[in-house]
TrEMBL record:
GO terms for biological process: cysteine metabolic process; serine family amino acid metabolic process; sulfur compound biosynthetic process. This is Cysteine synthase family protein. The keyword Glycosyltransferase does not apply. Keywords: Pyridoxal phosphate. Belongs to the cysteine synthase/cystathionine beta-synthase family. Residues 35-336 form the Tryptophan synthase beta chain-like PALP domain. InterPro entries: Cys_Synth/Cystath_Beta-Synth (IPR050214), TrpB-like_PALP (IPR001926), TrpB-like_PALP_sf (IPR036052). It comes from Tsukamurella asaccharolytica. Its cofactor is pyridoxal 5'-phosphate. It comes from the Bacteria. The keyword Transcription regulation does not apply. PANTHER family: CYSTATHIONINE BETA-SYNTHASE. Coiled coil: none annotated.
């Protein structure tokens, strides 16, 4: 039997409203910014799935005051810290975050008189960094390609800064129980109420795990709701906890604020305490190209401008709809807006740079059998020992495997540059800066951008197609043909 959410009657004329003081929540009138969080709308989507016997609904979390679902956790964590005496008047809020939690903390911090310091990875969008600074937050940029035990790792820097400040409080969203508790107390009940108890599937991205854990826990307690996690291809929530850091399928990805990245040199893999894997029934692994294609699709056909993690969740919801029973009611949580990513996911230049300008084709992921590819974790001696004869340059990457993610290219190194080096030196000390261009990126744009790095003729340029390296050329060849080829896809494959 088909299930549906009771329809709402909307009148567009001759509307008169009578209220009483107790209607303030319904009227969205609040005494504080923290009170305004939540009660985000649920919107029916009709262009995500071809099935008309299955409903997909979007929970528009980007309509929270700070523009994301992180408002819920941030408000809850601040209020909890105040009650427990961990955050006192004049104190400083410190957190390591890819942006949205930091924005939420900064806005509430500004409203409540706190100083806020945010440590953000270097891949955070410029829009989110600008919003943080607009709220008065102090922003520290951390490298995203370092292992968890490195002193410059995002969370390590945040912890060190909090410890160094008198009155500093480390939010610790990854392990703070107030994070999932906020969603169990608000997001879950809202979805249950908005669907009149008919929801059959919850789909949400897994980042810190707070949203899906708290929301899923509440919904499962109400009835037979299936909870589906969504993560980018390369994240490891869907892999066994015992998997080694170099497990097949683990690599960097391009979508912000979702997934769990494990650096190949991280000694341990600590999943967040905010994430309860027992709540999750299944996980859908979504390639970046699919997430990006989905968010562009809903912008043009649903009128929703959403971020990358929302594209990941919606792509997962579309998959769930393919096999769901007739009458299924699928709710996808959309964490943030695409306005925070106009310089990335909606920028033709950014898409072309990483090879995502053609989102209709599958990534080639072509192996590079004739180009030495070395792990950045090697010593000079190990690199020389593994260097194939007949080649004078090698691509150096975060990890090696059948496919090389363009974002994991550390740079290139010449064999002759290692002749006088200490065999025990890390090879990364001798690596030239990374040169990456999109397969179909404008040559004028790519050449201008890469020339500013100061490359030498023998440095290698990795060409990216849908995020993966599929061709490597030397800088001298790259520039030699630049005037005769308007786009990189017309270039001959230099591996032949």
């Amino acid at each position: 039997m088909s299930r549906s959410i009771p329809s709402l009657t909307v009148c567009d004329h001759d509307v008169s409203v009578t209220t009483t003081p107790t209607d303030r929540r319904a009227e969205r009138v609040f005494d504080s910014l923290a009170d305004a969080v939540g009660d985000t709308p649920l919107v029916r989507l009709r262009a995500v799935s071809a099935r008309d016997d299955v409903q997909i609904w979007a929970k528009l979390e980007y309509l929270n005051p700070g523009g994301s679902s992180k408002d819920r956790a941030a408000a809850a964590m601040i209020l909890d810290a105040e009650r427990r005496g961990l955050l006192r008047p004049g104190g400083t809020i410190v957190e390591g975050t890819s942006g949205n939690t930091g924005i939420a903390l900064a806005q509430f911090g500004a409203a409540r008189g706190y100083r806020t310091v945010v440590v953000a990875p270097d891949k955070t969008s410029e829009e989110k960094l600008a919003i943080l600074r607009a709220h008065g937050a102090e922003v520290v940029i951390a490298p995203s390609g370092v292992p968890a035990d490195h002193p410059d790792y995002v969370r390590n820097q945040a912890r060190r800064i909090a410890d160094s400040i008198d009155g500093g409080w480390l939010t610790g969203q990854y392990d703070n129980p107030a994070n999932p508790a906020a969603h169990e107390a608000t997001t879950g009940p809202e979805i249950w109420r908005q669907t009149a108890g008919t929801v059959t599937h919850l789909v949400a991205g897994i980042g810190t795990g707070g949203t899906i854990t708290g929301t899923g826990r509440f919904l499962k307690a109400q009835g037979a709701v299936t909870v589906i996690g969504a993560e980018p291809e390369g994240s490891n929530y869907s892999l066994p906890r015992s998997a080694e850091p170099h497990a097949e399928g683990e690599h960097a990805w391009y979508i912000e604020a979702v997934g769990h990245f494990r650096h190949p040199r991280s000694p341990v893999d600590d999943w967040p305490d905010s994430y309860d894997a027992g709540v999750i029934d299944a996980i859908e692994v979504i390639p970046d190209a699919t997430a990006l294609a989905t968010l562009h699709h809903v912008a043009r056909h649903e009128g929703l401008l959403v971020g990358g993690s929302s594209g990941t969740a919606l792509a997962a919801a579309a998959r769930v709809a393919e096999t769901a029973a007739p009458g299924a009611v699928i709710v996808a949580v959309l964490p943030d807006s695409g306005r925070a990513y106009l310089s990335k996911y909606f920028s033709p230049d950014w898409l072309a740079r990483w090879g995502f300008d053609d989102l209709t084709a599958k990534p080639t992921g072509v192996p590079l059998p004739r180009i030495p590819t070395l792990s950045v974790s090697l010593t000079v001696g190990e690199a020389i020992h593994r260097w194939p004869d007949g080649y004078d340059s090698a691509l150096v990457t975060l990890r090696t495997g059948p496919r090389t993610v363009a974002a994991e290219v550390a740079g290139s190194v010449r064999r002759s540059a290692l002749n006088d080096a200490d065999p025990n030196d890390p090879i990364e000390r001798h690596v030239r800066r990374a040169l990456v261009a999109g397969r179909r990126e404008s040559l004028d744009v790519a050449r201008s951008r890469l020339a500013s790095i100061g490359p030498e003729p023998e440095d290698l340029v990795a060409l990216s197609d849908r995020g993966f390296v599929d061709t490597v050329v030397k800088w001298r060849d790259f520039t030699h043909h630049a005037d005769s080829h308007p786009q990189l896809e017309h270039r001959e494959d230099r591996r032949r």
